[in-house]
Amino acid sequence: MPKLNSSQAPILFFLILVILLCSTQTQCHTKGLRLRPRNQKNVNTTSQRQNPEEEFMKWVRFVGSLKHSVFKAAENKLFPSYTLTVHKNQNKGDFTNIQDAIDSLPLINLVRVVIKVHAGVFKEKVNIPPMKSFVTIEGEGAETTIVEWGGTAQTPDTKGNPMGTFNSASFAVNSPFFVAKNITFKNTTPVPLPGAVGKQAVALRVSADNAAFFGCKMLGAQDTLYDHSGRHYYKDCYIEGSVDFIFGNALSLYEGCHVHAIADKLGAVTAQGRGSVLEDTGFSFVNCKVTGTGVLYLGRAWGPFSRVVFAYTYMDNIILPRGWYNWGDPSREMTVFYGQYKCTGEGANYAGRVAWAKELTDDEAKPFISLTFIDGSEWIKGVKGALKVRELNDRLMMAERALTDRDGLSGRPWYKHMVYGPAKYDEYGSKSFPGIDDAIDNAKRVKTKASWGLVQHEIWRVSRVIRHASIVLKGVLR
Predict the structure, then answer these.
(1) Which positions ≥6 away from 249 have C-beta within 8 Å?
(2) CA 287 to CA 112: how far, in whole Å?
(3) Domain boundaries, the chain
(4) Residue 416 pLDDT level (bands cut at 50, 70, 90)
(5) Which is it for the CA torsion 164, 166, 169, 171, positive or negative?
(6) CA-atom Rg of the chain in angstroms
(7) Which pLDDT score, from 0 to 100, does residue 45 have?
(8) Mean pLDDT across 211-229
(9) Which one is catalytic: 244, 280, 375, 437?
(10) Is residue 274 scored above 60 in pLDDT?
(11) How far are the Cα atoms of 401, 419, 447 from residue 440, in angstroms, in the given order?
(12) Beta bridge partners of 204
């Protein structure tokens, strides 16, 4: 047998490595790769190109049938390890602006940190670096807690060059497992004139996996929400803009959101950027509403394989009858996936829609209208439960504080908050634990010092109910 010389050995090693890699079955999932069950015969590639969405829905059903996620495990740190406060008054908080609170975290953050932002307008540009994961930003209400900046794509950067759309964001999320609740992200740039160049002005950019937003507002004009990349969940959010004001190439579910247009003439809600049939990305709007001014496309095909679905959504009469625009490229009409399912309102009339959009059947819509679309059973439900546990613990602290007050309860702001609780309840709220509100109502009816014993008893009962609920939830969510 002839010996290998020094130049042939690396080539032979490389060939052997390629053969070994190609002969093994893929057992994990990353975006851009498709799973194929064992022993499945090769599918005709022409068929795959002709029916990419059918293949995608087969894949979604396959994922939903598994007992575990095929995405990378979302090891979310649900319960806060420590809390920081941001307050305009330096004597009442740990920091006076949000970026300073972010900068105080270790370079590589491995624990959940809750940053409570008190009411106020914070005029600053905020950036969360990639390694500072597990950050929660919690405002006192989207109406009163606002982060704003006025950058555009043509705004000069530190070197004097235009910063571009990507860097124009008032608030940028680059780290995974981010959560925001009850806060507004705003870009103060006004609505640009038709045809204006360089006026893209992002209010919020999300460029990381496993990000969730609850009760937040995103305010801007052109390119308000840059839903850049990763799996994202938006619940009960308000998103305002004029042109392409929800755009990017993320895999995102918008549930119960209010999408409001402020276009002077012609605008568009979405510009989804899916660039390949292999990319598992797209936007799904479920139980949302679309209102505003001007006339709107539901979406423009920014990417050649753009994917957007509206389901159970109310559409005002501002929607153009054709509904969708091919970005001036007729070839995209063969590859995009634009769907509508059981929508209502004058703008939802499907009669005038473009021929290359779809009115989905029950089976076609199913993959897009649940948390399965973003693999949410793994990480979203845990985030919801953790937020509710925090809420219950806050009420527990108020109840325990009441035990030390023997001067009556009527009229005290903290007591009113304890009595009425949060404005909304979800599956972990008072409907599941009716004893909380019943006990508080009984305590509220007692207003005299002579009846303090009854007040004390009722507050003690509230404390026990809330504490029990918190313990139960923590046990379930671990």
Answers:
(1) 227, 228, 229, 272, 273, 274, 275, 279, 281, 303
(2) 30
(3) 380-477
(4) very low
(5) negative
(6) 26
(7) 45
(8) 95
(9) 244
(10) yes
(11) 14, 6, 13
(12) 171, 225
